[in-house]
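Exercise: predict the fold of this chain.
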Amino acid sequence: MMTRLGFSSIGAWAAKRLGLWGLFLLLVAGGWFGLLDGPQTPPEPQRAEALVPGVVARMDSPVFRYTPGWQVSPAGADPAEPADPWNEPSGQVTFAYQGRSLALNLAVGAYWGYIYVTVDGAPANRLVVIPGNVNSTGSLAGYKPLLAPERQTPQGPAPQWVMVHRAPDEGPHQVEVEVWRSWGQIPVRGVAVDGLPPQPLPLWPGVALALLGAILLIVAGWQWLVHIAHGLLRVMARLIPDFAPALLARLPDGLGFLLVGLGLALVAAGVYASSWLLTDLGLALLAVAGLLRLELWTGALLFGLPFYLHPLPLLPGRALNLVEIGVWGGLALWVVQAAGGRWQVADGRRQAADGRWPISQSPNTQYPIPNLPYPLHLVTLILLLALVSVFAAQERDVALREWRTLFLAAAGFALLL
């Protein structure tokens, strides 16, 4: 059965079935990962007399027609800087190809540039088309930004093959590539017609199967995990000095608010003066206030959210994001409270027996870590779905960073509340 706050117990037969299904899904996920191939290297561009299926052409091939100002070499094509870079393109290149799939080798990196691509007068169908975002002739076109700071290398922008169009027939097809800004970066470095290796199997189905299998195993072994968490809290409780809960219980009720005010002032001064000592002292005062009443730490985090763009200096040359410190620091305080015994009772007065409450004797008889409200089950589901989408993203490093910032930190904050 399921209790109000979580998976309390299920029948032994049901737990066994769930566990077997979980193991099966993990085995299937392992098989999927075993089928994955490493990325295959596309063939090197060669000088070409015609763009036909299987050809990977250099940009100095005679099949390309450039507007004036381009510098063309075996390394690629580099446009000239226009008189008005914000209102006119750096240049266009046109060509015809016979085949179905068309890919461009583009230089992406830490610079602002973009291209528009049309095929047979229509937007390239494998690129995004944004209403109102038109090329220099006022026509809709496939749009591809070249800004990708995470791909910048010490040698400059990195080449990346981008599929821009897949035609329904063999053609021939007329293509126009319009480049904006990007001079000095050699933005266009090759063209492939049905010439790229096949795409490898995606990673995300295996990740989804592995996560689902892990969830089934967790549900099947829920009681076992509860007892493990219970034991870990007991071990942590032995690390907390006996006098700490009793000392906190004797502190005046209003002291927490004073500590919050002083702590926030010290953190603000530390950020303003780039002083990690002031910041650490302020965070220590906020932590003491959070041990008195955890909602004081949460309130301080909410107060500081408008200033999230200002990192907090913690060590010489090391600063961390305000949100991460607030969320994970708050959860750490919550675990410390659980391990040391909660020193609050129903009437709001702090008490401690024999220096501290063992977790098994706490007024909160529910296990504090694995026992979660139903809304957090939904938050966990959203968090896991977002994690699967990370492995389906083209820019996985960027997606993982966004997942950690937008989903993981938000889930931690929901748990803190």
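Check your answer against the key: Residues 203-342+373-416 form one domain.
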